[in-house]
Amino acid sequence: MSATASKIDSKTYPLGLKSERSTGPAMALVALSHTPSERRLYSVMLDAVEVPVETSNSNDPVSGSLSGEHYEVFTVRRVMDLAGIKSLSTIRRGLEGLVAKHSLERESRRLGGNGNGGRAQIIYRVFKPEQVIARRNERGIKTFANEGVTSGPQPSLQRVIQRVVKNRNLSRRESEVALCCAQGLTNAEIGARLLVTKQTVKFHLRNVFIKFGVKRRAELISRLLM
User: In the chain, is it the N or the C terminus that has fewer CB atoms within a 10 Å radius of its CB?
Assistant: First the structure.
């Protein structure tokens, strides 16, 4: 694999090292629908769900307050700390994107008092990949490649999806193009599925070749399927 494909940007890599332990078909399919920043936020929030309450941030009045055992809801401040991203606009855009894609649920909760007392604060609840896909299905929204939730992708496609997601330098669109390519679609068919032009597909495909260290489509498909 080329040096380009092996570089890792820890600030934008969609699935942190800890999250790879839970990477599976559902996680991979959900990751394909997220932008790089959304993937990073989703990843760190999933990791935090597995952290016991006794290690919580005592300065955050919401952390760990629902389940009694694990974090289930997050403030914007907590997500910033977990992701190591100091740009408030980046965090808010990422959270809004995750809410729109049914990976998170937003609610307003009154803190610091009862009844009309205290202040209202927006908090977010994170859903596991299988729950995200189920939530989307309930709303008639199909995951990429229209794979079923119960049976999951076919074994060969499942391997392709996981290898596409594990290439940490691929953008969301590049990931989609690579997956379509592995499914045997032509550039015109990929463009029709993704609603982009053939020239745009070629542009993304060139980047995919570079990031996988291959020179042609057949090599890419072999790399994804082997």
Answer: C
